[in-house]
Amino acid sequence: MNNINAKPPVYDPAAVRPMREELTSIGFEEALTPQSVDEILSPENGGAVLFVINSVCGCAAGSARPGVALALQGNVIPDKLVSSFAGQERDAIDHLREKYLNSYPPSSPSIAFFKNGGLKFFMPRFEIEGRSPEEIATILNQVFEEHCAKPGPSVSQEIYSKLFKTGFSGSSVSLN
Fold first, then answer.
1. How are beta strands 80-85 and 29-30 bridged, if at all?
2. What is the pLDDT of residue 15?
3. Which of 91, 113, 142, 161 has the highest CB neighbour count under 10 A?
4. What 3-state class would DSSP assign to 119?
5. How many helices (H) and strands (E) does the chain have?
6. C-alpha to C-alpha distance for 63 and 95, rounded to whole angstroms
7. Shortest CA distance to 137 belongs to which of 81, 79, 69, 76?
8. If residue 69 lies in a helix (H) or strand (E), which one and from where to where?
9. Residue 58: which residues within 8 A CB-CB, separation 6 or more?
């Protein structure tokens, strides 16, 4: 059922598809509605959730997505990997920001980590800009080591190597 009151996407869906695939190809599911955000972050569902607010900007392509992907090659990873795209899932993002990230100004890209429904870590855009993917991965791996138990990686080294060779530049990734 479509919500006629939903905010329309800002960007052409075809243009952002490759940027979405950079995360979905390494195990992320997408939270497309406010209801899906609530379901995923419900304390009753428990567990550790990495939630990435994806973006078209250069720091998302150059640091955030590659840093997250590298972190997910670690020994422990979150139970659930979730993303929503700023400028696309506008209602979902607004809901996430208002209900779960209300202590922070809107920021995209950004990386949030939740445990049992509670926010444990947040990296806004200004903490992503100027950092290398390796620096972001190191920070995230520390969070994962402290809060997670699920064995990593999220994808095999073979798949990760194919993805990493593309440079996470927004090109369409084929895993076949």
1. parallel
2. 87
3. 113
4. strand
5. 8, 7
6. 25
7. 69
8. helix 65-71
9. none
Could you tell me the mean pLDDT of each successive run of 10 residues in the chain, 176 residues long?
66 88 95 97 92 92 94 97 95 97 96 96 96 96 97 93 62 42
| C-alpha distances out from residue 166 to 18, 121, 175, Å | 11, 29, 12
For residue 148, the 8-state DSSP code is -
Task: Tell me which amino acid residue 37 is.
Answer: V
Give the span between the Cα atoms of 145 and 164, in whole angstroms: 23
Token pair recorded at residue 8: 């329309």
Q: What is the edge-to-edge ordering of all strands in the sheet holding 29-30? A: 29-30, 80-85, 48-54, 110-115, 118-123
Q: What is the pLDDT of residue 169?
A: 45
Q: Give the pair of three-digit tokens for residue 2.
A: 């479509």
Q: Domain 27-160 - what CATH class?
A: alpha beta
pLDDT of residue 4: 58
DSSP 104: S
For 109, half-sphere exposure in the C-beta direction (CA atoms, 13 angstrom radius) is: 26
Beta strands in 22-103, from DSSP E residues, in sequence order: 29-30, 48-54, 76-77, 80-85
Whether residue 69 contacts residue 164, with contact meaning beta carbons closer than 8 Å, is answered with yes
Element at 37 (helix H, strand E): helix 34-41
Task: Report, as residue numbers or ranges, the catalytic residues.
Answer: 57, 59
